[in-house]
């Protein structure tokens, strides 16, 4: 309780402390539930952020890196086998304030045509009609670029994005590209995403981790954090950030 008060007394949240708060918030992620069909998913009252992308794009690795948990989203050695929508809860225990949804990867060649069609349908239903869906992170291996399937997904969500659904394209495995290649991949993806937000990410180098955590925090807390909403360890991060530096607001 005292820690929450300490956080709420902070005059303002600086960019660095906000990133720390967001990173610590991501670390609260834990398994919530799993379902094979949209109608089997529970309704949730908090913002939900979906991670989508082709098999092997680096989705599981990205979720594990963002949440600093090795096995949260199973980094499958057999792409296309995780055919469930998995939900992870974020926020202090007993006070879930957002949900991450890990959707099955698409485009895996060895999956039968009927399985592919079934999954495209489940995914499209989810993206079009899931209530509470606040944002989508589309992961894409920049060495492949945005493929037809990614573009089909963009088309499916376009009406919701026009109505305010948040959207981020994350170009993964940045460590495999030179700086020049990264710059080129970013500009191509920005064109394809129609001006939407695009960022580079590397789980290996931890590139983009703070920025993505901060963006997801902002998507989930559009009016800013209320003291009571701040998870305990995020509040700790805030207090630490205040103590870390010779901040002018620190009493002398
Ligand atoms: N070099 C590098 N490899 C990565 C990165 N992220 C994922 N990978 C590799 O890409 C492959 C697919 O990753 P995975 O997370 O299972 O992809 P998913 O099918 O989209 O969930 C695995 O061999 C990962 O080790 C990254 O940032 N850098
Ligand atoms: Mg995976």
UniProtKB/TrEMBL annotation:
User: Which PROSITE patterns does the UniProt record give?
Assistant: G_ENGB
One GO biological process this protein is involved in is: division septum assembly
Q: Which GO terms describe its molecular function?
A: GTP binding; metal ion binding
For this protein, the record's InterPro entries field holds: G_ENGB_dom, GTP-bd, GTP-bd_ribosome_bio_YsxC, P-loop_NTPase
Q: Which UniProt keywords apply?
A: Cell cycle, Cell division, GTP-binding, Magnesium, Metal-binding, Nucleotide-binding, Septation
| Disordered: annotated span | 225-252
| Protein origin, superkingdom | Bacteria
Q: What does this protein do?
A: Necessary for normal cell division and for the maintenance of normal septation.
- Protein's name according to its UniProt entry: Probable GTP-binding protein EngB
Q: Which organism is it from?
A: Paenacidovorax caeni
Its ancestry begins with: Bacteria, Pseudomonadati, Pseudomonadota, Betaproteobacteria, Burkholderiales
Gene encoding it? engB
